[in-house]
């Protein structure tokens, strides 16, 4: 359970804090929740906001995410992944559920078209990327082929299903699936995620 | 990843891995997600793949950090405090009159599985909401009291590789559902335990087998006549959305 050393970047310094707070909450210590919130809320809200592109909805969904984190803390299994990864997984799923349930898909499609093929990486993130880990992510994204990166970003950051990725890019579904898979596998290698998991297990 | 999977699954394994990858991005249509969930239940290699690709996906949110408005902090922490306080209280009494008036002596004898509890999901009406219990030590205490109760009665069943034991104590108005050697629920799904009374289901929380496949859940059993387990979307449902794959009757 040592923290990580997958590269000069390492994990964000908050990873251990997050894990300890999450495990404390899981053990019934609700007083640990504010620390958990403080260590993760900018990442959770930032991701949810990026997917939803609507601050009011992002606030609502972020609130739901934290209640789910509180209720399900006991099911966090440190051997299966990091604590921030677990929280961001819940956050992403809820954001995507909201995208798919509440918004008219045609509205969103128009929005995608108007953004055209976004710069690399997303302008918001370009601005905010600052720390060492961020540099690592940026360089990993840069090494990814433009096509793979685009497919991964459309799926993860815009909340598109692989079917929607295919139709948005005008490519066959099988091609979209392959690009998403190869893109993620490449990112995993470039960012050393596997290594981190193994060290944490 | 193993050969036998390759032969059994209608999709070839590489195609399944592509679906697993898309699943790590929450990018699957419901039909594909069902296929993946079924495969994950049988393929440890793909479960590992999914875990590790989820970490990779989470890394993609690096750089998007945006501090939320301060009022959100107050709102979240207030809601969590309220929920923590509620969990320290005994479970709220159900407002369902049928439950309230049924005396505990009316536990009926019913056939195990296939009988009274193979109810159509639509016939099951939830009288509670999902209550996850971070307060493990409290629950563990309650569990021990049920298992040690003088009037404890034990019912056993098997499901796939799992040994299932339900221990019911009338005096404690509770049961304990224990599983051994149970596979984890497929990705994106959870096993959910229900207390059944007169054909109505009240959630008793989620059943999450640990590394060794073991888990136990305290099941409120006041005036209940059995317990059941269903497979639900991750996090559980307010009422069952599928037929129970396991049902035990207090007889
Ligand atoms: Zn597999």
TrEMBL record, chain A:
GO MF: DNA binding; sigma factor activity
Protein's UniProt keywords contain Transcription: yes
Basic and acidic residues composition bias: residue spans: 98-120
Pfam families: Sigma70_r2, Sigma70_r4_2
One annotated GO biological process: DNA-templated transcription initiation
Residues annotated as domain RNA polymerase sigma factor 70 region 4 type: 135-186
Positions of the RNA polymerase sigma-70 region domain: 36-103
Keyword Transcription regulation included in the entry's annotation: yes
Keywords: Sigma factor, Transcription, Transcription regulation
Domain of life, per lineage: Bacteria
Region feature Disordered, mapped onto this chain: 98-128
PANTHER family: ECF RNA POLYMERASE SIGMA FACTOR SIGK, RNA POLYMERASE ECF-TYPE SIGMA FACTO
Family: Belongs to the sigma-70 factor family. ECF subfamily.
Protein's name according to its UniProt entry: RNA polymerase subunit sigma
Native organism: Brachybacterium endophyticum
From TrEMBL, chain B:
Low complexity bias locations: 82-93
One function term, GO molecular function aspect: sigma factor antagonist activity
InterPro entries xref list: Anti-sigma-K/W_factor, Anti_sigma_zinc_sf, RskA_C, Znf_put
Topology in membrane: Single-pass membrane protein
Compartment list: Cell membrane; Membrane
Segments forming domain Anti-sigma K factor RskA C-terminal: 119-244
UniProt domain Putative zinc-finger: residue ranges: 15-47
GO CC term, one of those recorded: plasma membrane
GO biological process: regulation of translation
Gene3D superfamilies, per database record: Anti-sigma factor, zinc-finger domain
Region named Disordered: 82-105, 229-251
Record's keyword terms, sorted: Cell membrane, Membrane, Transcription, Transcription regulation, Transmembrane, Transmembrane helix
Name of the molecule in the record: Regulator of SigK
């Amino acid at each position: 359970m040592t923290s990580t050393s997958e590269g000069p970047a390492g994990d964000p310094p908050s990873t251990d804090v997050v894990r300890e707070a999450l495990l404390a909450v899981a053990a019934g210590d609700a007083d640990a929740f504010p620390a958990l919130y403080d260590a993760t809320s900018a990442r959770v809200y930032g991701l949810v906001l990026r997917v939803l592109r609507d601050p009011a909805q992002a606030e609502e969904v972020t609130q739901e995410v934290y209640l789910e984190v509180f209720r399900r803390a006991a099911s966090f299994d440190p051997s299966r992944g990091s604590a921030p990864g677990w929280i961001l997984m819940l956050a992403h799923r809820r954001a995507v559920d909201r995208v798919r349930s509440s918004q008219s898909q045609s509205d969103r499609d128009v929005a995608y078209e108007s953004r055209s093929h976004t710069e690399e990486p997303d302008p918001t993130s370009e601005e905010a990327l600052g720390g060492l880990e961020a540099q690592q992510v940026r360089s990993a994204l840069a090494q990814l082929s433009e096509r793979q990166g685009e497919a991964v970003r459309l799926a993860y950051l815009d909340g598109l299903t692989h079917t929607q990725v295919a139709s948005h890019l005008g490519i066959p579904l099988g091609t979209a699936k392959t690009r998403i898979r190869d893109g993620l596998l490449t990112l995993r290698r470039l960012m050393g995620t596997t290594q981190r998991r193994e060290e944490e297990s | 990843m193993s050969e036998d999977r390759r032969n059994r699954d209608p999709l070839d394994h590489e195609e399944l891995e592509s679906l697993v990858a898309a699943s790590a991005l929450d990018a699957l249509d419901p039909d594909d997600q069902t296929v993946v969930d079924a495969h994950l239940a049988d393929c440890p290699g793909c479960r590992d793949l999914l875990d590790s690709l989820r970490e990779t996906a989470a890394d993609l949110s690096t750089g998007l950090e945006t501090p939320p408005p301060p009022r959100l902090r107050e709102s979240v922490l207030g809601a969590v405090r309220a929920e923590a306080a509620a969990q320290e209280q005994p479970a709220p009494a159900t407002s369902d009159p049928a439950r309230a008036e049924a005396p505990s002596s009316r536990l009926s004898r019913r056939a195990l599985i296939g009988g009274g509890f193979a109810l159509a999901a639509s016939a099951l009406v939830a009288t509670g909401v999902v209550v996850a219990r971070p307060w493990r030590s409290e629950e563990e205490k309650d569990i021990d009291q049920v298992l040690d109760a003088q009037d404890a009665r034990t019912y056993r069943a098997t499901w796939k590789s799992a040994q299932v034991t339900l221990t019911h104590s009338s005096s404690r108005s509770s049961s304990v559902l224990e599983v051994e050697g149970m596979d984890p629920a497929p990705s994106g799904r959870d096993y959910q335990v229900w207390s059944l009374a007169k054909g109505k289901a009240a959630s008793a929380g989620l059943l999450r087998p640990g590394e060794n496949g073991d888990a136990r859940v305290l099941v409120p059993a006041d005036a209940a006549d059995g317990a059941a387990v269903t497979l639900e979307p991750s996090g559980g449902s307010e009422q069952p959305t599928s037929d129970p794959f396991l049902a035990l009757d207090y007889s």
